Amino acid sequence: METCADHLATNMLFKSEPSKGEEAIDTVMQDVVVILVFILGSVFAYRLRSKGQAAKDPCKGPAHVSNKLQQVAPPQANVPGGFRAQRFVMCAKQEQILNHLANHDFTRALNLFRTYERDGRDQYFSVELFIAFVQAAIRMEKLDVIERMLHSMRRAGVVGPTNFWQSTFRILSSRKLFSMCTFIHEHFEDMLPEDRVVVSCLVNAALEVGHARRAAAILQKYKKVMDLKDYVLFFRTYAALDDVNAAKGVFQELSYRTTPIMLNLLLLTCVKVRDSSRALETLRQAMALQVEHNSRIVDEVSFNTTMKGFIQEGRASECVDCFLEMLSHGFEPSEVTFGHLFDACEMDKDLGGAYMLGKIMLESNSQARLSNAHRSMKWCTLKSENRHAHRQQCNNFAVSVAA
Fold first, then answer.
1. What burial letters (b/e) apply to 138-176, b meaning 16+ CB within 10 Å?
2. Do 126 and 88 meet the contact criterion of CB atoms below 8 Å apart?
3. How confident is the model at residue 13 (pLDDT cuts 50, 70, 90)?
4. What is the DSSP letter of 387?
5. What is d(CA 344, CA 353) in angstroms, rounded to the nearest whole number?
6. Residues 344, 391: one domain?
7. At which of 325, 348, 371 does a domain end?
């Protein structure tokens, strides 16, 4: 006979064992919960990435990747999500290459890059990788690698930021790789920004390699981005081209804002084409502007340059007149000034003038003036052997120099 305890235990055991239908429902509910948790986690992670976590993704790189990069159709583009998947896979590869570059393992990094370049996967790299590669290639002076990276950037539609181009041209110029600067301008001009630092580096590089006409073309094209202090490049370029009219035009444009170095380059251009009269005329115009606007345009180098032009043209008297004009404006003559004056005296065979110059220079403690004094003494001694009037003066001068 079944006791009450046995009956209660049987009923409890029966209730604790669910039916097969209940087990199926529990399994489905568990799967639904797992799927919902996965979906919510994915949405939450995506929102975090879009609000700032994407910056930690090395494949993102700086925000300088052109929209063209997203429009390039890779071979896997016909597969849903193929482009995004490739970008995510290449993220780790890019990080590996960057680590090699950071450890100065340039060869291994380059070989790895070439592996992905062969099948077109280099288009998935960000601008961060190209910047690191170009800077490393400059340090290694691997000019072919720089060209390779720039071609790859163009294919991928990657736009380098302005500071990248500034640092690139500055480093190239500091290492005197001027030919590479002109090569980049010739073949990748469409990728360069309109920036005054970039333009200055390009103009200086063109002048260094003797491409003055290219420098002039660059200046005319990017004139709008140049500052006032950058206008010295115009005068340097026109001096290399011996173009006095163009240099004079820039001088008229700047007027009282012209700096002494700009004026001196203009005067040098006049001297190079043997037009010292125009140089003196320009010098007087600059002097008038300086007095009128209380600015600094003319210095002693301006007068020395003009005097040099007169000496080269054999016009000794005009050289002396320029020197007197220099003194009238309160400028202090330098050793170069005395050298030009001695050349004028030598040209006119003026022993008395040369003797006086030597005496003045002897009173100075400057080594350069003393060397000119020795030169003056030697010339006076040689030229006055047949001139009794100057012989005693030259002997006294020689004794004073020796003392």
1. beeebbebbbbbbebbeebebbbeeebbbbbbeebbeee
2. no
3. very low
4. -
5. 9
6. no
7. 348
Residues 282, 333 within the same domain = yes
Mean pLDDT of 109-114: 92
Q: Tell me if 200 is assigned to some domain.
A: no
Q: How far is CA 2 from the centre of its chain?
A: 103
Residue 320 has a pLDDT of 85
Mean pLDDT throughout 365-371?
A: 53
Q: Is residue 262 part of a domain?
A: yes
Residues 325 and 256 grouped into a single domain = yes
- CA dist 107 → 92, 102, 113, 236, 248 (Å): 19, 12, 10, 41, 52
> 54 falls in which pLDDT band (50, 70, 90)?
very low
Structure tokens at 375: 């030169």
Residues of the domain holding 338: 242-348
Would you say residue 380 lies in a domain? yes
Contact 148, 188 (CB under 8 A): no
How far apart CA 249 and CA 246 sit, in angstroms, is 5
Say if residues 192 and 198 touch (Cβ distance below 8 Å).
yes
Task: Please indicate, yes or no, whether residues 385 and 333 belong to a single structural domain of this protein.
Answer: no
Domain membership of residue 292 (yes or no) is yes
Same structural domain for residues 371 and 397? yes
Q: What is d(CA 145, CA 138) in angstroms, rounded to the nearest whole number? A: 9
What is the crossing angle of helices 127-140 and 162-174, to 10°? Answer: 0
**Range with lowest mean pLDDT among 96-100, 122-126, 291-295:** 122-126
Number of domains in the chain: 2
Q: Is the pLDDT of residue 27 over 70?
A: no
The pLDDT score that the predictor gives to residue 377 is 52
pLDDT > 70 in the chain, percent: 64
